[in-house]
Amino acid sequence: QSVLTQPPSASGTPGQRVTISCSGSSSNIGTYAVHWYQQFPGTAPKVVISNNSQRPSGAPDRFSGSKSGTSASLAVSGLQSEDEADYYCAVWDGNLNGWVFGGGTKLTVL
Amino acid sequence: QVQMMQSGAEVKEPGASVKVSCKTSGYTFTNYYTHWVRQAPGQGLEWMATVNPRGGSPDYAQSLQGRVTMTSDTSTRTAHMELRGLTFDDTAIYYCARGRGSLDPFDVWGQGTMVIVSS
Predict the structure, then answer these.
(1) R_g of chain B, CA atoms, integer Å
(2) From CA A69, how far away is CA A83, in angstroms rounded?
(3) What residues of A are in contact with residue B97 (Cβ under 8 Å)?
(4) Greatest Cα pair distance in chain B
């Protein structure tokens, strides 16, 4: 059972906008910045959103992030087939004194 | 370019120990935190530990306290992770990654090291 809760799956058709949620608590998302990682099968994760809503260089501008209270969201606009991957939210937890990851969401492009 | 190159796959028996290395290049090793994350087959990501190469005690996941040790060798710019008392549940891909600050995202990752625990 992950400290951060994500839906196990999400899907959309090309061009659609899809949102993935990440729910936590006051000791993690409520206090610290959330980062989002994209992972393709057999490869290491890659950060696509940092500090709640910042897009690292190289991350497509169709990725965006937001945070409100103890929840965060990753949105993918103009969905493309190459966006099909697993997505994880991550944040520091002040109670656990460590990083926590969401359980991951498998994004399928129909 | 910035790289984190990990040691090769390992197969260990239950109860044994494993040590995974992460050799870095292309950046100032002591300016970045090194993190270790693992991923069991078909499962999600699990943070294991964070090491500040400039010193101080590493932060370890509570679930691994007492079994894991992270070290950094600044002369060779290499981080090491040793996990003791292996069980079948430790079968996973182990990744090293770096972060600019203690709360910054993990912006560069190693390629991963597969550790299989098998009798």
Answers:
(1) 13
(2) 27
(3) 44
(4) 41
